Amino acid sequence: MKAPSPSFFKAMMAIVRKDLAAEFRSRELLSAMLVFSLLVIIIFNFALELDVKVRESVTAGVLWTTFAFAGTLGLNRSMAVEKDRGCMDGLLLAPVDRSAIYFGKAISNLAFMLVVEAIVLPVYSMLYNTNLFQPGLLLVILLGSIGYIAVGTLLAAMSVQTRTRDVMLPILLFPIAIPVLLAAVKASSGFLNGAEFSEILAPLNLLVVYDLIFIAIPLMFFEYVVEE
Amino acid sequence: MIETKKLVKRFGLKIVLRGVDFSVQPGEFVALLGPNGAGKTTFLRILASLSRPSLGEVTVANYKLPDQAAQVRAKLGVVSHLPLLYPDLTAEENLRFYARMYGIDEQEKRITEVLNMVGLEHRRKDLVSTFSRGMQQRLAIGRAVVHDPEVMLFDEPYTGLDQDASEMLDDVLRSVAAKGRTVVMTSHDLARAEDLATRFDILSRGVIVASARHEDIKNTNLLAFYKKAIES
Protein backbone atom coordinates (compact mmCIF):
# COMPACT_ATOMS: atom_id res chain seq x y z
CA MET A 1 0.00 0.00 0.00
CA LYS A 2 1.36 3.38 -0.99
CA ALA A 3 1.09 6.09 1.63
CA PRO A 4 0.98 9.47 -0.08
CA SER A 5 1.80 12.51 2.01
CA PRO A 6 -1.29 14.46 2.98
CA SER A 7 -1.73 18.05 1.91
CA PHE A 8 -0.85 20.84 4.31
CA PHE A 9 -4.54 21.65 4.76
CA LYS A 10 -5.61 18.03 5.42
CA ALA A 11 -2.89 17.51 8.03
CA MET A 12 -3.76 20.79 9.72
CA MET A 13 -7.46 19.92 9.81
CA ALA A 14 -6.68 16.41 11.12
CA ILE A 15 -5.01 18.01 14.15
CA VAL A 16 -7.90 20.43 14.67
CA ARG A 17 -10.48 17.63 14.53
CA LYS A 18 -8.40 15.49 16.89
CA ASP A 19 -8.03 18.31 19.42
CA LEU A 20 -11.72 19.22 19.29
CA ALA A 21 -12.80 15.58 19.64
CA ALA A 22 -10.46 14.99 22.61
CA GLU A 23 -11.59 18.20 24.30
CA PHE A 24 -15.27 17.50 23.63
CA ARG A 25 -14.80 14.26 25.55
CA SER A 26 -12.56 15.38 28.41
CA ARG A 27 -13.54 19.08 28.72
CA GLU A 28 -10.37 19.52 30.81
CA LEU A 29 -9.02 22.53 28.99
CA LEU A 30 -12.25 24.47 28.44
CA SER A 31 -13.50 23.94 31.97
CA ALA A 32 -10.22 25.19 33.45
CA MET A 33 -10.20 28.25 31.19
CA LEU A 34 -13.86 29.01 31.87
CA VAL A 35 -13.74 28.65 35.64
CA PHE A 36 -10.65 30.84 35.76
CA SER A 37 -12.21 33.50 33.52
CA LEU A 38 -15.46 33.63 35.48
CA LEU A 39 -13.59 33.87 38.77
CA VAL A 40 -11.51 36.78 37.48
CA ILE A 41 -14.50 38.83 36.29
CA ILE A 42 -16.42 38.09 39.49
CA ILE A 43 -13.45 39.19 41.62
CA PHE A 44 -13.12 42.38 39.56
CA ASN A 45 -16.88 42.91 39.87
CA PHE A 46 -16.64 42.95 43.66
CA ALA A 47 -13.43 44.96 43.69
CA LEU A 48 -14.93 47.73 41.53
CA GLU A 49 -18.47 47.51 42.94
CA LEU A 50 -18.88 51.00 44.31
CA ASP A 51 -17.46 53.10 41.55
CA VAL A 52 -19.54 52.91 38.35
CA LYS A 53 -17.31 55.30 36.38
CA VAL A 54 -14.20 53.31 37.17
CA ARG A 55 -16.00 50.14 36.14
CA GLU A 56 -16.86 51.61 32.75
CA SER A 57 -13.34 52.84 32.12
CA VAL A 58 -11.64 49.57 33.05
CA THR A 59 -13.92 47.21 31.09
CA ALA A 60 -11.45 46.75 28.23
CA GLY A 61 -8.57 46.15 30.65
CA VAL A 62 -10.51 43.64 32.74
CA LEU A 63 -11.67 41.78 29.65
CA TRP A 64 -8.21 41.45 28.13
CA THR A 65 -6.60 40.54 31.45
CA THR A 66 -9.15 37.75 31.72
CA PHE A 67 -8.64 36.57 28.13
CA ALA A 68 -4.86 36.71 28.38
CA PHE A 69 -4.59 34.64 31.57
CA ALA A 70 -7.24 32.14 30.48
CA GLY A 71 -5.54 31.86 27.10
CA THR A 72 -2.21 31.08 28.78
CA LEU A 73 -3.83 28.27 30.76
CA GLY A 74 -5.21 26.79 27.54
CA LEU A 75 -1.95 27.14 25.62
CA ASN A 76 0.05 25.39 28.33
CA ARG A 77 -2.39 22.52 28.60
CA SER A 78 -2.81 22.10 24.85
CA MET A 79 0.93 21.54 24.31
CA ALA A 80 1.41 19.55 27.52
CA VAL A 81 -1.08 16.95 26.23
CA GLU A 82 1.16 16.41 23.21
CA LYS A 83 4.41 16.32 25.17
CA ASP A 84 3.50 14.23 28.21
CA ARG A 85 2.60 11.05 26.33
CA GLY A 86 5.15 11.55 23.57
CA CYS A 87 2.43 12.47 21.08
CA MET A 88 4.52 15.39 19.85
CA ASP A 89 6.91 12.77 18.43
CA GLY A 90 3.91 11.12 16.77
CA LEU A 91 3.05 14.44 15.09
CA LEU A 92 6.68 15.08 14.11
CA LEU A 93 6.95 11.61 12.56
CA ALA A 94 4.16 12.35 10.10
CA PRO A 95 5.36 13.22 6.58
CA VAL A 96 3.90 16.72 6.67
CA ASP A 97 5.29 20.22 6.69
CA ARG A 98 5.87 20.98 10.36
CA SER A 99 4.17 24.33 10.12
CA ALA A 100 0.94 22.35 9.45
CA ILE A 101 1.32 21.06 13.02
CA TYR A 102 1.68 24.62 14.28
CA PHE A 103 -1.39 25.88 12.42
CA GLY A 104 -3.45 22.87 13.50
CA LYS A 105 -2.61 23.51 17.14
CA ALA A 106 -3.09 27.27 16.76
CA ILE A 107 -6.56 26.89 15.21
CA SER A 108 -7.61 24.51 18.01
CA ASN A 109 -6.30 26.92 20.64
CA LEU A 110 -8.08 29.82 18.96
CA ALA A 111 -11.34 27.84 18.89
CA PHE A 112 -11.06 27.14 22.63
CA MET A 113 -10.30 30.78 23.38
CA LEU A 114 -13.24 31.98 21.27
CA VAL A 115 -15.59 29.57 23.06
CA VAL A 116 -14.45 30.94 26.42
CA GLU A 117 -14.85 34.51 25.18
CA ALA A 118 -18.34 33.73 23.85
CA ILE A 119 -19.35 32.63 27.36
CA VAL A 120 -17.47 35.33 29.25
CA LEU A 121 -18.91 38.26 27.25
CA PRO A 122 -22.61 37.79 28.17
CA VAL A 123 -21.69 37.06 31.80
CA TYR A 124 -19.59 40.21 31.91
CA SER A 125 -22.40 42.20 30.24
CA MET A 126 -24.82 41.08 32.95
CA LEU A 127 -22.48 41.65 35.90
CA TYR A 128 -21.24 45.04 34.74
CA ASN A 129 -24.43 46.15 32.99
CA THR A 130 -22.46 47.00 29.83
CA ASN A 131 -23.36 46.14 26.24
CA LEU A 132 -20.34 44.28 24.85
CA PHE A 133 -22.08 42.97 21.74
CA GLN A 134 -20.88 45.66 19.35
CA PRO A 135 -19.52 44.57 15.95
CA GLY A 136 -16.40 46.73 16.35
CA LEU A 137 -15.55 45.26 19.75
CA LEU A 138 -16.16 41.72 18.52
CA LEU A 139 -13.76 42.37 15.62
CA VAL A 140 -11.11 43.60 18.07
CA ILE A 141 -11.60 40.53 20.25
CA LEU A 142 -11.17 38.29 17.19
CA LEU A 143 -8.03 40.09 15.97
CA GLY A 144 -6.53 40.26 19.46
CA SER A 145 -7.23 36.60 20.10
CA ILE A 146 -5.64 35.59 16.78
CA GLY A 147 -2.47 37.53 17.62
CA TYR A 148 -2.28 36.26 21.18
CA ILE A 149 -2.83 32.63 20.14
CA ALA A 150 -0.45 32.91 17.17
CA VAL A 151 2.48 34.00 19.34
CA GLY A 152 1.32 31.88 22.30
CA THR A 153 1.21 28.61 20.35
CA LEU A 154 4.73 29.18 19.06
CA LEU A 155 6.09 29.96 22.54
CA ALA A 156 4.12 27.11 24.14
CA ALA A 157 5.85 24.70 21.74
CA MET A 158 9.18 26.05 23.03
CA SER A 159 8.34 26.22 26.72
CA VAL A 160 6.76 22.75 26.86
CA GLN A 161 10.23 21.30 26.27
CA THR A 162 11.54 22.86 29.48
CA ARG A 163 11.11 21.46 32.98
CA THR A 164 9.55 24.70 34.22
CA ARG A 165 7.03 24.98 31.39
CA ASP A 166 4.13 26.26 33.54
CA VAL A 167 6.21 29.23 34.64
CA MET A 168 8.18 29.59 31.44
CA LEU A 169 5.25 30.23 29.09
CA PRO A 170 3.93 33.40 30.78
CA ILE A 171 7.48 34.67 31.27
CA LEU A 172 8.15 34.31 27.54
CA LEU A 173 4.68 35.21 26.31
CA PHE A 174 3.64 38.33 28.19
CA PRO A 175 6.56 40.58 27.14
CA ILE A 176 6.15 39.57 23.49
CA ALA A 177 2.36 39.88 23.64
CA ILE A 178 2.45 43.40 25.12
CA PRO A 179 1.90 45.11 21.72
CA VAL A 180 -1.15 42.98 20.89
CA LEU A 181 -2.62 43.35 24.39
CA LEU A 182 -2.10 47.13 24.49
CA ALA A 183 -3.54 47.58 21.01
CA ALA A 184 -6.49 45.34 21.86
CA VAL A 185 -7.21 47.23 25.10
CA LYS A 186 -6.97 50.58 23.34
CA ALA A 187 -9.18 49.57 20.40
CA SER A 188 -11.73 47.86 22.71
CA SER A 189 -11.83 50.92 24.94
CA GLY A 190 -12.35 53.13 21.89
CA PHE A 191 -15.34 51.12 20.69
CA LEU A 192 -16.86 50.92 24.18
CA ASN A 193 -16.52 54.67 24.78
CA GLY A 194 -17.79 55.65 21.30
CA ALA A 195 -14.51 57.20 20.16
CA GLU A 196 -13.99 58.44 16.58
CA PHE A 197 -12.99 55.67 14.16
CA SER A 198 -9.82 57.59 13.29
CA GLU A 199 -8.69 57.18 16.93
CA ILE A 200 -9.32 53.45 16.82
CA LEU A 201 -7.69 52.92 13.45
CA ALA A 202 -4.09 52.99 14.72
CA PRO A 203 -4.51 50.18 17.31
CA LEU A 204 -6.61 48.23 14.81
CA ASN A 205 -3.83 48.48 12.23
CA LEU A 206 -1.31 47.38 14.84
CA LEU A 207 -3.44 44.33 15.62
CA VAL A 208 -3.63 43.36 11.95
CA VAL A 209 0.12 43.82 11.42
CA TYR A 210 0.95 41.88 14.61
CA ASP A 211 -1.34 39.04 13.50
CA LEU A 212 0.29 38.85 10.07
CA ILE A 213 3.81 38.87 11.53
CA PHE A 214 3.09 36.11 14.03
CA ILE A 215 1.32 34.01 11.44
CA ALA A 216 4.31 34.35 9.09
CA ILE A 217 7.07 33.66 11.64
CA PRO A 218 6.00 30.07 12.50
CA LEU A 219 5.84 29.23 8.78
CA MET A 220 9.60 29.78 8.70
CA PHE A 221 10.74 28.85 12.20
CA PHE A 222 8.38 26.30 13.78
CA GLU A 223 10.49 23.44 12.42
CA TYR A 224 13.48 24.69 14.41
CA VAL A 225 11.39 25.30 17.54
CA VAL A 226 10.30 21.66 17.78
CA GLU A 227 13.58 20.17 16.65
CA GLU A 228 15.79 18.41 19.18
CA MET B 1 17.76 0.04 3.41
CA ILE B 2 19.40 1.81 6.37
CA GLU B 3 22.96 3.09 6.36
CA THR B 4 24.95 5.41 8.58
CA LYS B 5 28.54 6.45 7.97
CA LYS B 6 30.72 7.97 10.69
CA LEU B 7 27.60 9.22 12.48
CA VAL B 8 28.36 11.59 15.34
CA LYS B 9 25.86 13.17 17.73
CA ARG B 10 26.82 15.80 20.26
CA PHE B 11 24.68 17.43 22.93
CA GLY B 12 26.72 20.47 23.88
CA LEU B 13 30.11 19.14 24.97
CA LYS B 14 28.83 15.60 25.47
CA ILE B 15 29.44 13.24 22.56
CA VAL B 16 26.81 10.49 22.56
CA LEU B 17 27.55 8.81 19.21
CA ARG B 18 31.20 8.64 18.13
CA GLY B 19 31.23 7.68 14.48
CA VAL B 20 28.65 4.92 14.08
CA ASP B 21 28.89 2.84 10.90
CA PHE B 22 25.74 0.78 10.55
CA SER B 23 24.04 -0.92 7.67
CA VAL B 24 20.81 -2.93 7.41
CA GLN B 25 19.67 -4.85 4.34
CA PRO B 26 16.00 -4.96 3.27
CA GLY B 27 14.04 -7.52 5.31
CA GLU B 28 16.62 -7.81 8.10
CA PHE B 29 15.52 -7.69 11.77
CA VAL B 30 18.39 -6.14 13.71
CA ALA B 31 18.45 -6.07 17.49
CA LEU B 32 20.52 -3.12 18.69
CA LEU B 33 21.75 -4.05 22.15
CA GLY B 34 23.82 -2.18 24.68
CA PRO B 35 23.96 -0.89 28.24
CA ASN B 36 22.07 2.17 29.47
CA GLY B 37 23.61 5.36 28.12
CA ALA B 38 25.20 3.65 25.13
CA GLY B 39 23.33 5.92 22.71
CA LYS B 40 20.70 3.48 21.40
CA THR B 41 17.72 5.81 21.74
CA THR B 42 19.68 8.77 20.34
CA PHE B 43 20.69 6.61 17.38
CA LEU B 44 17.10 5.53 16.73
CA ARG B 45 15.83 9.12 17.03
CA ILE B 46 18.29 10.16 14.34
CA LEU B 47 17.13 7.31 12.07
CA ALA B 48 13.54 8.44 12.76
CA SER B 49 14.39 12.03 11.70
CA LEU B 50 13.47 13.29 15.17
CA SER B 51 17.01 14.46 15.83
CA ARG B 52 19.69 15.82 13.50
CA PRO B 53 23.13 14.22 13.29
CA SER B 54 26.03 16.47 14.26
CA LEU B 55 28.30 14.83 11.67
CA GLY B 56 28.17 11.92 9.25
CA GLU B 57 25.77 10.52 6.70
CA VAL B 58 22.40 8.87 7.30
CA THR B 59 20.31 7.11 4.65
CA VAL B 60 16.97 5.49 5.39
CA ALA B 61 14.83 3.82 2.71
CA ASN B 62 17.19 5.29 0.09
CA TYR B 63 16.60 8.87 1.25
CA LYS B 64 19.18 11.10 2.90
CA LEU B 65 18.60 12.61 6.33
CA PRO B 66 17.97 15.32 7.29
CA ASP B 67 17.43 16.76 3.77
CA GLN B 68 14.76 14.26 2.68
CA ALA B 69 13.14 13.80 6.07
CA ALA B 70 9.55 13.98 4.80
CA GLN B 71 10.20 11.14 2.32
CA VAL B 72 11.83 9.06 5.07
CA ARG B 73 8.90 9.62 7.44
CA ALA B 74 6.43 8.34 4.85
CA LYS B 75 8.34 5.01 4.78
CA LEU B 76 8.97 4.73 8.51
CA GLY B 77 7.05 3.38 11.50
CA VAL B 78 8.29 4.07 15.02
CA VAL B 79 7.31 2.42 18.30
CA SER B 80 8.85 3.55 21.58
CA HIS B 81 8.09 2.75 25.20
CA LEU B 82 5.60 5.66 25.07
CA PRO B 83 2.53 4.72 23.02
CA LEU B 84 2.11 8.14 21.29
CA LEU B 85 -1.66 7.72 21.65
CA TYR B 86 -4.34 10.10 22.87
CA PRO B 87 -6.11 8.69 25.94
CA ASP B 88 -9.31 10.71 25.34
CA LEU B 89 -9.79 9.22 21.89
CA THR B 90 -10.96 5.70 21.09
CA ALA B 91 -8.69 3.14 19.44
CA GLU B 92 -10.23 3.78 16.03
CA GLU B 93 -10.15 7.56 16.47
CA ASN B 94 -6.43 7.39 17.26
CA LEU B 95 -5.77 5.28 14.17
CA ARG B 96 -7.99 7.52 12.05
CA PHE B 97 -6.05 10.57 13.18
CA TYR B 98 -2.73 9.02 12.22
CA ALA B 99 -4.20 7.70 8.95
CA ARG B 100 -5.17 11.28 8.10
CA MET B 101 -1.72 12.55 9.03
CA TYR B 102 -0.23 10.04 6.57
CA GLY B 103 -2.78 10.82 3.85
CA ILE B 104 -4.04 7.24 3.61
CA ASP B 105 -6.86 6.40 1.21
CA GLU B 106 -9.58 3.94 2.30
CA GLN B 107 -8.96 4.78 5.93
CA GLU B 108 -11.78 2.71 7.45
CA LYS B 109 -10.67 -0.46 5.66
CA ARG B 110 -7.08 0.05 6.78
CA ILE B 111 -8.12 0.80 10.38
CA THR B 112 -10.08 -2.47 10.53
CA GLU B 113 -7.12 -4.39 9.08
CA VAL B 114 -4.74 -2.90 11.61
CA LEU B 115 -7.07 -3.47 14.58
CA ASN B 116 -7.47 -7.10 13.53
CA MET B 117 -3.69 -7.46 13.20
CA VAL B 118 -3.06 -6.24 16.75
CA GLY B 119 -6.08 -8.12 18.15
CA LEU B 120 -8.04 -5.06 19.26
CA GLU B 121 -10.98 -5.05 16.82
CA HIS B 122 -13.38 -5.81 19.70
CA ARG B 123 -12.13 -2.70 21.56
CA ARG B 124 -12.18 -0.28 18.61
CA LYS B 125 -14.83 1.99 20.17
CA ASP B 126 -13.21 2.06 23.61
CA LEU B 127 -11.18 4.97 24.94
CA VAL B 128 -7.44 4.35 25.03
CA SER B 129 -7.45 5.54 28.66
CA THR B 130 -9.32 2.32 29.53
CA PHE B 131 -6.65 0.10 27.91
CA SER B 132 -4.00 -1.83 29.83
CA ARG B 133 -0.35 -1.02 29.16
CA GLY B 134 -0.04 -4.11 26.96
CA MET B 135 -3.10 -3.19 24.90
CA GLN B 136 -1.82 0.37 24.49
CA GLN B 137 1.49 -0.98 23.24
CA ARG B 138 -0.25 -3.24 20.73
CA LEU B 139 -2.30 -0.29 19.52
CA ALA B 140 0.93 1.74 19.35
CA ILE B 141 2.26 -0.87 16.92
CA GLY B 142 -0.99 -0.54 14.97
CA ARG B 143 -0.46 3.21 14.87
CA ALA B 144 3.08 2.71 13.60
CA VAL B 145 2.05 0.35 10.77
CA VAL B 146 -1.14 2.14 9.72
CA HIS B 147 0.65 3.55 6.64
CA ASP B 148 2.31 0.19 5.87
CA PRO B 149 5.92 1.39 6.34
CA GLU B 150 8.92 -0.38 4.81
CA VAL B 151 11.13 0.30 7.83
CA MET B 152 10.17 -0.16 11.49
CA LEU B 153 12.07 1.19 14.49
CA PHE B 154 11.28 -0.19 17.94
CA ASP B 155 12.80 1.54 20.95
CA GLU B 156 12.49 -0.68 24.03
CA PRO B 157 8.96 -1.80 23.11
CA TYR B 158 8.74 -4.20 26.07
CA THR B 159 9.29 -1.58 28.77
CA GLY B 160 6.64 -1.86 31.48
CA LEU B 161 4.90 -4.94 30.03
CA ASP B 162 4.05 -8.01 32.07
CA GLN B 163 4.77 -11.55 30.86
CA ASP B 164 1.43 -12.06 29.08
CA ALA B 165 1.53 -8.68 27.41
CA SER B 166 5.13 -9.29 26.31
CA GLU B 167 4.17 -12.62 24.74
CA MET B 168 1.29 -10.99 22.87
CA LEU B 169 3.65 -8.27 21.69
CA ASP B 170 6.07 -10.99 20.46
CA ASP B 171 3.34 -12.28 18.16
CA VAL B 172 2.54 -8.81 16.85
CA LEU B 173 6.23 -8.07 16.26
CA ARG B 174 6.64 -11.36 14.39
CA SER B 175 3.68 -10.55 12.16
CA VAL B 176 5.13 -7.08 11.48
CA ALA B 177 8.52 -8.57 10.57
CA ALA B 178 7.00 -11.41 8.56
CA LYS B 179 5.77 -8.94 5.95
CA GLY B 180 9.33 -8.36 4.76
CA ARG B 181 9.79 -5.11 6.62
CA THR B 182 13.19 -3.97 7.73
CA VAL B 183 13.23 -3.76 11.52
CA VAL B 184 15.66 -2.23 14.01
CA MET B 185 14.81 -2.84 17.66
CA THR B 186 16.65 -1.71 20.77
CA SER B 187 16.17 -3.89 23.82
CA HIS B 188 17.67 -4.97 27.12
CA ASP B 189 15.81 -8.27 26.88
CA LEU B 190 18.41 -10.56 25.30
CA ALA B 191 16.15 -13.61 25.27
CA ARG B 192 13.46 -11.80 23.29
CA ALA B 193 16.03 -10.25 20.97
CA GLU B 194 17.53 -13.69 20.31
CA ASP B 195 14.08 -15.06 19.58
CA LEU B 196 13.06 -12.33 17.13
CA ALA B 197 16.12 -10.84 15.44
CA THR B 198 18.21 -12.08 12.52
CA ARG B 199 21.21 -9.97 13.50
CA PHE B 200 22.61 -8.47 16.69
CA ASP B 201 24.64 -5.27 16.89
CA ILE B 202 26.14 -4.13 20.17
CA LEU B 203 26.37 -0.39 20.78
CA SER B 204 28.63 0.65 23.62
CA ARG B 205 29.96 4.10 24.52
CA GLY B 206 28.67 5.54 21.25
CA VAL B 207 30.14 3.02 18.79
CA ILE B 208 29.11 -0.37 17.38
CA VAL B 209 31.58 -2.72 19.07
CA ALA B 210 30.32 -6.02 17.66
CA SER B 211 27.92 -7.44 15.14
CA ALA B 212 26.84 -11.02 14.48
CA ARG B 213 24.18 -12.84 12.54
CA HIS B 214 21.79 -15.18 14.33
CA GLU B 215 23.41 -18.28 12.84
CA ASP B 216 26.89 -17.11 13.88
CA ILE B 217 26.11 -17.25 17.59
CA LYS B 218 24.04 -20.41 17.58
CA ASN B 219 26.85 -22.45 19.08
CA THR B 220 27.60 -19.97 21.86
CA ASN B 221 24.80 -17.78 23.14
CA LEU B 222 23.77 -14.16 22.88
CA LEU B 223 24.58 -13.35 26.51
CA ALA B 224 28.19 -14.52 26.14
CA PHE B 225 28.55 -12.63 22.86
CA TYR B 226 27.05 -9.49 24.45
CA LYS B 227 29.27 -9.63 27.54
CA LYS B 228 32.40 -10.18 25.49
CA ALA B 229 31.52 -7.24 23.23
CA ILE B 230 30.81 -4.88 26.13
CA GLU B 231 34.01 -5.80 27.96
CA SER B 232 36.21 -5.50 24.89
Structural class of chain B: alpha/beta
The CATH topology of the largest domain in chain B is Rossmann fold
| Unreliable parts of chain A | none
Q: From the helix content, strand content and strand pairing of chain A, which structural class follows?
A: mainly alpha
Strand content of chain B: 25-35%
Q: Determine the number of helices of chain B (DSSP H or I, runs of at least 4 residues).
A: 8
Q: What's the name of the CATH homologous superfamily of the largest domain in chain B? A: P-loop containing nucleotide triphosphate hydrolases
The figure for the number of domains of chain A is 1
- Number of DSSP-assigned strands of chain B: 10
Number of strands of chain A: 0
Could you give a quick summary of the protein structure above?
Chain A has 228 residues and is an all-alpha fold.
Protein architecture, described:
The complex is a heterodimer of chains A (228) and B (232). With 228 residues, chain A is mostly helical. Chain A has eight helices and no strands. Chain A has one domain (8-226). Helix content of chain A is 84%, strand content 0%. In chain A, α2 runs antiparallel to α3. Chain A is globular and about 55 Å long. Chain B has 232 residues and is of the alpha/beta class. In chain B, the strands form two sheets. Chain B has a six-stranded mixed beta sheet, with helices on both faces. The two termini of chain B are 29 Å apart. The model of chain B has no long low-confidence stretch (mean pLDDT 90).
